[in-house]
Specification:
Strand order of the largest sheet: 3-2-1-6-4-5
Distance between the termini: 49 Å
Number of strands: 8
Helix content: 10-25%
C-alpha cells in the first residue's frame, strides 16, 4: 500500500503524487481549453503557483476567471454577501463569516467580516504567509452546521480497480455559527 506525505509540492514515489488544494483549484480553469469545466465553485482567489487567479462559476455553470483582481473588488464581493443580503441562508451565518483562508500545509482559517476587512486593508496580494487560497464562506443550509466531505481514492491492484472512502466532518462547529444563548 502506498503512503502519501503532506507536502505543499508534488511528492513522487510508489505511484503517489500529492498536490495542494490550490493546485487542484487552479486546474479547474484553463485559457487554452475550448470546453470549460462545469462545477459549482464559490468565489476563489488563488495565490499559489504564480499570479493571483480569481475563479468563480458563471450563470451558465462554467468555471470562469475574473479579470479585475484588486483588494477593493475582492472585499466588495466577499463582504456584500453578509452586509447586504444576509448571506445565501439568512439567519444561518450569525457569526458573519465571509472567507475561508487555505494555507499550504492544509491549515484552514475562517474569517468574519471585520477580520476579512482588516486583512484586505493590509495590502493585496498577501505574501509571505503561506496563504494559497481565499474562498467565500457559504453558510450551511441544513440544520447540522457546516460540514465538509473528503473523498479518498486508492488503487486496489494493477488492473486499475479503485477503492474509495468518504469522510464527513465539521469544518466549523455548529455552536460557532449561531449567536450565544
Amino acid at each position: 500500500m502506498a503512503t502519501a506525505r503532506r507536502s505543499s509540492g508534488p511528492v513522487l514515489g510508489r505511484g503517489v503524487e500529492v498536490r495542494s488544494s490550490a493546485w487542484a483549484l487552479r486546474s479547474l480553469w484553463s485559457a487554452k481549453e475550448p470546453v470549460k469545466c462545469t462545477v459549482p465553485l464559490v468565489d476563489t482567489v488563488l495565490m499559489a503557483g504564480g499570479d493571483p487567479l480569481w475563479l468563480f462559476t458563471s450563470k451558465a455553470g462554467e468555471v470562469r476567471k475574473k479579470k479585475l483582481i484588486t483588494a477593493e473588488a475582492i472585499a466588495k464581493q466577499f463582504l456584500s454577501s453578509v452586509r447586504q443580503r444576509g448571506g445565501a441562508f439568512p439567519g444561518r451565518n450569525l457569526a458573519r463569516r465571509v472567507a475561508v483562508l487555505r494555507f499550504g500545509e492544509g491549515a484552514v482559517t475562517v474569517l468574519d467580516d471585520a477580520s476579512f476587512a482588516d486583512l484586505m486593508a493590509q495590502g493585496w496580494p498577501v505574501r509571505g504567509t503561506g496563504l494559497e487560497a481565499v474562498q467565500a464562506f457559504v453558510a450551511s443550509g441544513g440544520s447540522g452546521g457546516c460540514q465538509t466531505h473528503r473523498h479518498r481514492y486508492r488503487l486496489r491492484d494493477d488492473k486499475g480497480r479503485v477503492l474509495t472512502s468518504a469522510l464527513t466532518f465539521s469544518l466549523v462547529p455548529p455552536h460557532l455559527t449561531s449567536s450565544p444563548g
